[in-house]
Backbone:
């Protein structure tokens, strides 16, 4: 069985769409200005659906979406670009799982950018 898509409920579909397209390399397959629904792809087989949520709905504590990059240096570079764009982004963290940072986007969407441990860990002195 193959995973078809993930559907997230957000307060503002066009704003969340622009955030994910502008900062996380997703591409809109539908009208990016639709207030009701957007369908996004990563171009590698993953589909993310954004739909307008009802008032009062919130993501559960700890809920996030994660993007995987190939090199710890890319985590650092993406973190710098997100911060330069004025977004709420954590410091880069390193632990046994790898190198990562987190960005808070529209609709309280939490996004992780990470590189798994052992992947080019020599670049930044270990992960």
Residues:
């Amino acid at each position: 069985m193959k995973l078809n898509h993930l559907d997230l409920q957000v307060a503002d579909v066009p704003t969340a769409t622009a955030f994910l397209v502008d900062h996380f390399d997703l591409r809109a397959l539908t009208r990016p200005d639709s207030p009701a629904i957007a369908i996004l792809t990563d171009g590698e087989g993953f589909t993310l659906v954004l739909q307008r949520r009802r008032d009062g709905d919130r993501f559960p504590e700890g809920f996030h979406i994660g993007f995987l990059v190939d090199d710890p240096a890319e985590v650092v570079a993406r973190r710098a670009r997100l911060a330069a764009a004025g977004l709420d982004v954590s410091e880069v963290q390193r632990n046994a799982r790898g190198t990562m940072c987190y960005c808070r986007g529209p609709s309280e969407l939490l996004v992780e950018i990470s590189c798994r441990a052992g992947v080019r860990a020599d670049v930044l002195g270990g992960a």
